[in-house]
Amino acid sequence: MRSPFAMCGGRAGLAGLLVLAAVAGMASADPGGRVTGTITVTESDGKPANATDVIVYVVGFVEPADDQVATITQKGRKFVPDLVAITVNESVSFPNNDSFLHNVFSQSGPRKFDLGSFKGGETKARRFPETGVVDVYCNIHPEMAATILVLPNRRHARADDSGHFVLEGVPAGDWRVFAYTRRATKPTSAKVSVKAGAETTVDLSIVRGAEPAHLNKYGEKYHGGQVYK
Amino acid sequence: MYGTEVMPERGVELQTWILEEDNKYDTQVKESSIWWGPLIGVTDQLELALPFELEWDQVGGDKASFTFKRFGIEARYRMVSQDPVEAPALVPLVRLAIKRDVTVRDDVRVEGDVVASYETGAVHALVDLGFVSDITPHTHHTEMRPSGGVSIRVAGELRLGAELYAELSLDSRGESWAAVGPNVAWTHGRFWFSGAFGIGIYHINAAPRVMWGIAF
After folding, report:
1. What is the pLDDT of residues A25-56, one digit of tens each?
2. Which residues contact B4 (CB under 8 A, 6 or more apart)?
3. Interatomic CA distance for residues A211 and B16, integer angstroms
4. Distance from chain centroid for Cα A23
5. Minimal-distance CA residue of chain A relative to B3
6. Which of A33, A123, B108, B156 would disulfide-bridge A194, Cβ 3.0–4.6 Å?
7. Does B126 touch chain A (CB under 8 A)?
8. How far is CA B78 from CA A5, B45, B88, in A?
């Protein structure tokens, strides 16, 4: 807003950990080790769920960004994918592949932005200079929601259908491995001790809850109420 | 005084300004004017406004008049990104407006401003070097409208500060005045409000003004 003169629960904890990780130290140039494992995802009612929308990452050390640009597409009134992980200082582009307007915005503390309304075929992008969890919404379509994990290093990966993941090149040392999915009731993590050239295995489980309510970019409820997937 | 924020692309805002000038010049002119109009974000850095102005005035003890005074179009171009990460602390903006005076049928008003804001922490400073020029086939009158101010965020989106503004005639067809006083600005969601109470320091008693806007 102009003037002429003018995460809730677990997410807050995760954001704090990411900030701490950012100041913990730079990774050494050793070849590193490999961290593998399996994520078990259950819904809050106890039913098993697919693990493909889980991202696993390691915190405790800092690496420079690869200058890669991740993409979150707006298509069919959805963000695709609805969860991406990037390294701090990397960018995310937001192409609109629908035939109507979207207004992508975030009010998350680590990165507030408002892309304005832009039509199909147009793309806008933003850089993310601070670690943390950035929730992204559309000011026109309340059912659209996505999350960007801005991480202090490049050691992050998406789990496969069976929940298996592999993190390559993790520097030797004692770190903490996190698993994150949108709608997680709280972050889940485990300590790992990584040795150069060796493989370390860690298994994690995570519980997925309901999509949290969100407000529009003015801090108000959407007209017609919230609609969620 | 114009700020350096503009609407995001395809954003729309309705703004209302009420400006008062009490007992200015030796002739004790009193004026109240209303500026109202929509602003449209053409790009993330360029917005257009389509204002119209109503004006009430009274000279000395004469009968007061209230009239539809002028309408026009204006462009405001912010010269840097408005993204909070990409934007530098020093933000320049230029404004150009062309208006038709309804009461003086052959008059064209041209307005321009070069505005710069600087933000550091809770402090926001603004300088606006503006001019207004009324042009008819036979006459020409120009005045400078410089202003500047500083405000501090005191709580949430509430700002308090002080500002100085003036109208300085560059020819014998007009007179000059200046005022200085406290200001307040408050933003709440899609709504913002700003007000200043200018106390006359030269050829005017007071120049209070309030402005508000609501975005859609």
Report:
1. 555 556 789 999 999 999 888 898 888 889 99
2. B78, B91, B92, B93, B115, B116, B117, B126
3. 39
4. 19
5. A4
6. A33
7. yes
8. 15, 5, 12
